[in-house]
Write a structure and sequence with these properties.
The complex is a heterodimer of chains A (about 230) and B (about 120). Chain A has about 230 residues and is mostly helical. Chain A has eight helices and two strands; from the N terminus they run H-H-E-E-H-H-H-H-H-H. In chain A, helix 2 crosses helix 4 and helix 3 crosses helix 6. The two termini of chain A are about 30 Å apart. Chain B is mainly alpha-helical. Chain B has two domains: about 80 residues, no CATH class; about 30 residues, no CATH class. Chain B is about 70% helix and about 0% strand. Classes of the chains: A mainly alpha (about 230), B mainly alpha (about 120). At the A-B interface, helix 1, helix 2, strand 1, strand 2 and helix 4 of A face helix 1, helix 2, helix 3, helix 4 and helix 5 of B.
Chain lengths: ~230, ~120
């Protein structure tokens, strides 16, 4: 889901840079209002977790690979706006240092995975969990189900946005010879290719990672599962 | 404060364990003969798949040379060496990500403190 440099033309990557800049500004503003010194380690832990969990490439035998992002999990634990910044930090370092995702595509990749996935994953979590926004050792089934469904929906939304952004390049930018000059694969190819693997496998991996970490934290760090807001 | 610190210490240990396990993210795809992620191919692979190299794609793909491309060191692209490079990349990445988070966190918090005063 990390779009490399060159796949997106300037219209798309420029628009998504323009979209992510005010989102980062607003998220920083939200963090400013609430951040306490004791929460800085949580921001760092979240960014480090997102970075390292994305290194676990899960193979489809004979096919492609994919990975979890931790985006919804982090939103559930530290709130959506801190999660936007945490996942963005991981994605920017991946692009700049490791060439995982392009630098022109940082806006796009952050919009997909650090904004849309985080916010929608978190909204679905809130919707399903309802009033059960705390998970203790004796309760929390709705909390966990909400986080699982939220993370499944969230990563699939990011996958859809990625497929859409890649697919529209064949419409937006065509050379004089009639061939696409950026990503050459049309929507009818990108949507099924990316969506089937995420709906069938990587979305479930994301939900499992979310639930396993929450089950662990419920026992070891119950304070983290008590929502502050 | 002290208990909170030791609390987080346990979570950092968890990040460390994940870091040491991260080469599984390289070994498993090799074991199951899986390629990279869909739509993250290099220029040569694009040539094989699409039958040509789109001009704009080639041009923009050259704007940035990452210092540690694909979590690998040059010449350390296969076997055990590639797993070591992947592990080391994980360590480097985590250190940078954590440093950026702390700097950003401190800056945002300081602005917050300034405003309160």
């Amino acid at each position: 889901m990390h779009i490399p440099d060159g796949y997106l033309g300037p219209i798309t990557y420029g628009s998504l840079w323009a979209a992510i800049a005010p989102i980062w500004f607003y998220a920083s503003h939200q963090i400013k209002k609430t951040l306490k010194a004791t929460q800085i380690p949580l921001l760092a832990l979240s960014a480090a977790f997102s970075f390292v969990v994305m290194m676990f490439n899960i193979p489809i035998p004979g096919g492609t690979t994919g990975h979890a992002t931790g985006a919804t999990l982090i939103a559930v634990l530290v709130g959506p706006w801190t999660a936007v910044i945490a996942v963005s930090i991981a994605l920017v370092v991946q692009a700049l240092v490791f060439g995982d995702g392009g630098i022109t595509a940082i806006g796009a990749n952050c919009f997909n995975m650090a904004f849309a996935e985080v916010l929608v994953g978190y909204a679905v979590f809130r919707l399903v969990a309802g009033r059960q926004r705390e998970a203790t050792s004796t309760q929390g089934t709705r909390f966990l189900i909400g986080a699982a469904i939220g993370s499944y929906v969230g990563i699939n939304l990011a996958a859809f946005l990625t497929a859409f952004e890649l697919g529209i390049q064949t419409i937006l930018h065509v050379g004089q010879d009639g061939r696409p000059i950026y990503s050459p694969f049309p929507l009818r190819l990108t949507i099924p290719a990316i969506m089937i693997e995420h709906l069938a496998l990587f979305g479930i991996i994301e939900a499992v990672v979310t639930v396993v970490v929450l089950l662990y934290l419920r026992r070891s760090h119950p304070d983290l599962l008590r929502r502050q807001s | 404060m002290k208990t909170q610190k030791s609390n987080y210490g346990k979570l950092w240990t968890g990040i460390g364990i994940l870091m040491f396990l991260a080469p599984m993210g390289l070994i498993l795809p090799e074991l199951f003969r899986a390629g990279g992620a869909w739509g993250e191919w290099g220029v040569e692979e694009i040539r094989d798949i699409a039958g040509y190299v789109p001009g704009g794609l080639k041009h923009i793909s050259e704007v940035w040379s990452a210092p540690i491309p694909d979590y690998a060191f040059s010449g350390w692209n296969k076997g055990v060496k590639s797993y070591i490079a992947y592990l080391a990349s994980g360590l480097v990445g985590i250190v940078i990500v954590v440093a950026v988070s702390y700097v950003l966190g401190k800056v945002l918090k300081r602005e917050n403190d300034d405003r309160v005063q």
